[in-house]
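Follow-up to my post from last week.
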Amino acid sequence: MQLPKEAMYAIVAGVVGLLFAVVMAKKVLSKDRGNDTMKEIQDNIASGAMTFLKREYSVLSIFVLGVAVILSVALTGEVDGLGVKSAIAFVVGALCSSLCGFGGMKIATAANARTTQAATRSFNEALNVAFPGGVVMGMLVMCVGVLGLTGLFYLFTGMTGGVREASIVMAGFSMGASSIALFARVGGGIYTKAADVGADLVGKVEAGLPEDDPRNPAAIADNVGDNVGDVAGMGADLFESFVGALLSAIILGLAAYAGNDAGQTAAVGFIFATVAAGVVASIVGVFAVRVKEGGDPQAALRMGTIVSALLFAVLVFVIANMLYGDVQGVDAMKWAIAVVIGLGCGMGIGFTAEHYTSGHTVEDLAKQSDNYATNIIGGLAIGFRSAVYPLLIIAVAVIAGYQLGGMFGVTLAAVGMLGTLGITVGVDAYGPIADNAGGIAEGAHLPPEVRERTDALDSAGNTTAAIAKGFAIGSAALTALALFVAYSESLKTLGWDLNLNLIQQPIVLAGMLIGGVIPFLFSADTMNAVGRAAQSVIHEVQRQFREIPGLREGKEGVRAEFERCVDITTKGALKEMIKPGVLAVLIPIVVGCFLGPDALGGLLAGSLVAGVPLAIMLANAGGAWDNAKKHIEKTGGKGTEQHKASVVGDTVGDPFKDTSGPSINILLKLMAVISLVFAPLIVKVFKAMPWFENFS
Amino acid sequence: MQLPKEAMYAIVAGVVGLLFAVVMAKKVLSKDRGNDTMKEIQDNIASGAMTFLKREYSVLSIFVLGVAVILSVALTGEVDGLGVKSAIAFVVGALCSSLCGFGGMKIATAANARTTQAATRSFNEALNVAFPGGVVMGMLVMCVGVLGLTGLFYLFTGMTGGVREASIVMAGFSMGASSIALFARVGGGIYTKAADVGADLVGKVEAGLPEDDPRNPAAIADNVGDNVGDVAGMGADLFESFVGALLSAIILGLAAYAGNDAGQTAAVGFIFATVAAGVVASIVGVFAVRVKEGGDPQAALRMGTIVSALLFAVLVFVIANMLYGDVQGVDAMKWAIAVVIGLGCGMGIGFTAEHYTSGHTVEDLAKQSDNYATNIIGGLAIGFRSAVYPLLIIAVAVIAGYQLGGMFGVTLAAVGMLGTLGITVGVDAYGPIADNAGGIAEGAHLPPEVRERTDALDSAGNTTAAIAKGFAIGSAALTALALFVAYSESLKTLGWDLNLNLIQQPIVLAGMLIGGVIPFLFSADTMNAVGRAAQSVIHEVQRQFREIPGLREGKEGVRAEFERCVDITTKGALKEMIKPGVLAVLIPIVVGCFLGPDALGGLLAGSLVAGVPLAIMLANAGGAWDNAKKHIEKTGGKGTEQHKASVVGDTVGDPFKDTSGPSINILLKLMAVISLVFAPLIVKVFKAMPWFENFS
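User reply:
Got it. Predicted complex:
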């Protein structure tokens, strides 16, 4: 089977989306950067961020090349040229992900000072810089994903002779994206929190400086962290979710209609057409974000998200009805329903996240902050509880998706959840731009109303970003699941029928138990990594205050050696990201080879079951603490005991919500895609194990 | 098939064990209670504890009767008289569990002051009161379990005509034990922590009183809490693990040798004989606990545990070889190996718990306590990491057990883990006695060396108790698993073949996702419950300090109204235990009836996979914080900022390790046993659901 014509729609949509991103970027770049101090701070942030990215990518390029070689060798055998082709796909996937990170950072670090400058005039003008800046990132993630995936599909379909054969190779693409995403999330997450903690604990608490004070040697590193963690990390995360969801939908669409050529073509075509519709819907959604002066920016952002979702839903139904209404043996309307259910579930998860990290929940938590311990326990309890509804929603998505189209339906729900990625990432990525803008306002000693405007911008983004986080978590769960099912399909083609019946197969149960504890191990590792990296930043900041005379007092002409902080944070984050990253790659391969594909299946299921609630718990507990602190500050509690307790909660929550929690999302997907890619090797090696007969 | 003769060995061993408990109790009761103040404090603690138990049992009696009625009605149908018989078994199980709790509390509250008085003379004499006190509880739990189970088996085998038929009814017994255990653990856990937090936050922090100061109105409630939480709660927990493990071993032994009468008789006989051996080994182990004056009590306690384990292992091999060496189609030596592997795994889990809550780990955590947030993050990271090895060990136990004897082998590992229950519970239950003894020493203003001796006693017990906690957690996991498999066997007899293949059955996956989040919900509920109950204690203590003149200053003749604190804590704990308890009972029934037995199977598996690491994480994080605080106090850090931070960590850890964590253990077993008991109802109701056809 050849690639259906709808793939061309996706290409066209991808190109249009990129052009739109260019227009948005030009709009941002046309704005004024402000005075010289602002320019200087901006340049410092930008160069810090680029330094980090460059060094990160040079570390990762070794990893990528190494894995590419391993892939070429390990997958040589049964299928002709599978190894080399997978390696190529892997490298391209890694490159595409890096490209998104790079581009997103470039624009984010260009938009920050421009947002500050616009904020000197009005709130709306600031929004009109920051949001387009975020949208560039969103469109980049979505369209590079679409173009990379579709382009490679064209290439490999030509080379291998069919879409099904190409889809096996394409797992490498998804794995490339996932690998970069994991390192970007973990490395970026460690960077941002180490810098944040260092800046807060020494600069704010010990030296008594206000937030983002230029005398604080870690202030620039802190601002760099917002970019490398929240922009590059988040983008890479959703990029790989998007790619993984699309790929597994294609694999399972092909499997669902095996033997029905028209059905297969329709299923694959529907996916590409849906993606094209998503790009269009995202662009339209961006235009729907309009605020009058004095209007509610949060309502505007939410309006954009909703318009985009509704349009997407309508388009998907139209596509299903017009293009596939008459295809034999196919009920495309059910596909469309599955897609829309996924979209709805993503929003549902987002709204629960919003519920648990704002409003009454946060006010109650603030009340519990009259004591350190009750604040911590309260936040943890909120986190634990906040996992309940999302898991129920995901369960509903699974059941509904399956009822509508079997496992293909489940993957369609994942595709739907990510359908309007352009705008959801846009809304999310605009947050750190606003955050940076505030930092620049502080650093350049602009009048307080500027900072107030950027803070309002930031806080509007925070709440709306909760919805984006919901999409990220929900789609990670469904994508991991979809990849897991794709893994079982891949095993089938290798002659291995995955048997996950726990009761007949205790090895599956053992795999599940091991899988269940991996997210716990990963959380411990990433938390400790943040702690260690933060320690080195803390020591450096303390050293500077000690050794640079006049720094603390803000003497004219004395400046902090912020480059050293940037450098130390970069080194710390890069060093600390290696172990968890390598672990995530090795565990599935080792378990698969030694205990077999069934045990590995159990491991994937177990990691999903324990990892998804844990990731949600970490994310929302962190969000609740953060917002409880903000609530106390807003209601005049700054400096009170209550405020101090809430600062501790916020500090505990920092690695929760920005390092450990989001990393688990990627961990789950990465382990699944590695299992998928290495399935041929795993089957071969396990069959050679002396205990093979005992466990099969 | 009739009950094999070995059941009589178990009866004899049970009676001997109880006699031994009586001897130990007499030994304790023969000691001197000390001066009048000590007697008064002891009486206050004892009456507070009894009040709580009486009120708890009167609340629970309504629950037990209600469930008994439901059982009689709901299970009427296919099998003759199943409902009424199950209801009887349920009530007897609940009564046996209550009996253990009641007896254990009686002796613990009798031993506390006597330990204090002995400590006025020497450390060794104190150990010789506290440890026998704990042993009474241990032997009670083990022997009431053996006698109740075996006795009822005799009864029901007679009534139903066979062991297999009786084993179905006996699931009710296990459920009765589990239900009481859940409420006892949750209620007791809330009580002990609410009182502790109340006593600490107001008495110690606000009013500046030392620990256990008699002026503190919550001091008595705090001491009562040690008994209702750590003695009664822990005992009920292990009682139900023991009963559940034995029962599921019997059910799976019968299933494993279906059609081979001699094999079935041997399998069931082996279980009873093993239990008898365990009673003997426990008694011998108690005699091995000997310390010379100035010797190391911790080494002595560990020696007792190890002697008992080794003897048990030897006896099990002897039994397997002598009694079942020649049975057709049976390899009893493999059974023995499975039992011993279980025993070893239990100890292994215990040692990892010890590792993560003592020594270098704790010293490192103490170092991180120069800051509140790093202390919290450090403790959480320890908790997360500490789950890794236990899960791997459990996975090994599952694989090894299965290789040795299929699912029967896995249940044998669980039986082995609990084989020396008499002494492991004994070592654990002696901790709260020592703790109470310290409180009485403080309250009666005895010379400081007395308190030092009881503290040394307490700390020796703490470390050794980590091993007992390991048994509790490991056995909970294996027992829940064993009950889960028994559930699948029960479904088979009902004509339902449990299909847990995730990929063919998304409903199983949905069940797993729901199951995975239940421990999170439960943790949130229990943490909040402690918080609310603690608030009411805090307010009461504050009120007394405000309204009773001279209390804070310790004026002659002024005494705290500690009865009110006891009363308020009791009411709070009983009120708060209802919701989580009822939820645990209802969830499996609701999911089973609406989504079917397969989804329920997924739910049980999911709750196990997420719940076991979470329970371990909560327990060990709490233990690490507690010991870090103690380490700082021991190294002269009292009153420093570091110490304050460690107190916050300890307070956060309190509900972790004593309420939420241990409750999850029971939750997992309770949900499994409820599924087992209600399987007939669930199958019937689900088949009547309109969507039944879609999901089967």
